Amino acid sequence: MGWDWFMSALPYGEQWKDQRRLFQQHFHPSNVTVYEDTIVEYVHEFLSDILQTPQDFLAHVRRIPGGAAISLAYGIKVERYNDRFVKVAEHAVNAITAAGVPGAFLVDIFPILKYVPEFIPGAGFKQKAKEWRQDMLAFRNDSFAEAISRIELGNARPSFTSRAMEGINASNAEYHTKLVQDTAGMIYGAASHTTISAIYTFLIAMLHYPYVIKKAQSELDRVIGQSRLPDFGDMKRTPYIMAIVKEVLRWQPVTPQAIPHRLMEEDVYEGYVFPAGTIFVPNAWAMLHNEEDYPEPMVFRPERFLNSNGNINIEIRDPNGMAFGFGRRICAGIHIAEATLWLTIASVLSTFDISPRVDKDGKDILPKLFYQSSIVS
Ligand code: HEM
């Protein structure tokens, strides 16, 4: 499908190191000015969108991380409806998340099938891969070309691309340009569907557990008051909101099977020998629903992360160590994801109530907890 440049799909090696280093240099957790303003901009627009057309909430949610990712990566401000860059990006990323589930296609298990000619019955996956490759190319190339053209015209908003292209010189131009293009392309792919899934989970959790809304609103009223919206300075002072963020990521993990890792060298674990090349599919779902760490794991209960003083209890296993992957490949954008989720949740609960539709007898219609199967749930 042509995604071999995508950071999560890269094998451990120079190309991966260069991408990860470039990403981390730009989005270092200490450099909050690079991303916080953009998140605030999209979350505030989301609030006004919800006020005007609450029935379109699913689309409005998608625009927060999707729009923020495109702005952060390319300096392109995303339109409210039918943005062409978002459309292309969503199309491409939908395909990779569906096809990325280990075993989704027989060829994942029997790689030799990739040599089967396209006309043989059952080889439809090859045609699909071809189409998806076109989507991927449009996604990676168009937004980057647009960002470069704005930089050349001098009217680009500062972004990952504009800053990273400053480091370019004649001796490394070709390699560096491709590195910037690949890393920028990865940002939407890694940031959007994952964060959207978590925000959807937050909304459905509020319908099923309305007491959480009341408790959160009382914390927000106490800490922030009613005359302004939450800002990042309030993050440390609102442990209940942070506990909701953690419970969202634990209760319905965004990537229940994480991302598969391949062993580079033979290794031994608890007496089992694993040859180099072994593929591990971490069962993040099971870890995040382990009853020893999280009693009654199917219940959404943010309080499980708090101590008796109402602060985050550091003795409870932090879901971040499982919900965002593992080892040196752990999500490089955890701080951006957490910031986006915290601000979205705090802002929504500061300004709105969330309640289910009611039927003609006035009874709540609770949506089913149904998740589509894909690498991003
Ligand atoms: C709720 C939101 C998110 C979740 C649940 C999530 C989860 C993950 C997971 C499970 C991985 C694979 C880790 C592994 O291979 O073990 C990953 C990788 C990655 N994520 Fe996230 N992510 C989220 C948001 C973001 C955001 C907002 C960004 C950037 C703006 C980001 C950037 C990355 C990058 C760069 C990688 C590749 C790391 C590597 O292969 O070295 N993620 N993420």
TrEMBL record:
Cofactor(s) demanded: heme
Amino-acid biosynthesis in keyword set: no
SUPFAM superfamilies: Cytochrome P450 (SSF48264)
Positions with a binding annotation for heme: C331
tRNA-binding among keywords: no
PROSITE patterns: CYTOCHROME_P450
Keywords: Heme, Iron, Metal-binding, Monooxygenase, Oxidoreductase
Example of a GO MF term: iron ion binding
Source organism superkingdom: Eukaryota
InterPro entries, per the entry: Cyt_P450, Cyt_P450_CS, Cyt_P450_E_grp-I, Cyt_P450_sf, Cytochrome_P450_fung
Pathway info: Secondary metabolite biosynthesis
Similarity annotation: Belongs to the cytochrome P450 family.
Record-given protein name: Cytochrome P450
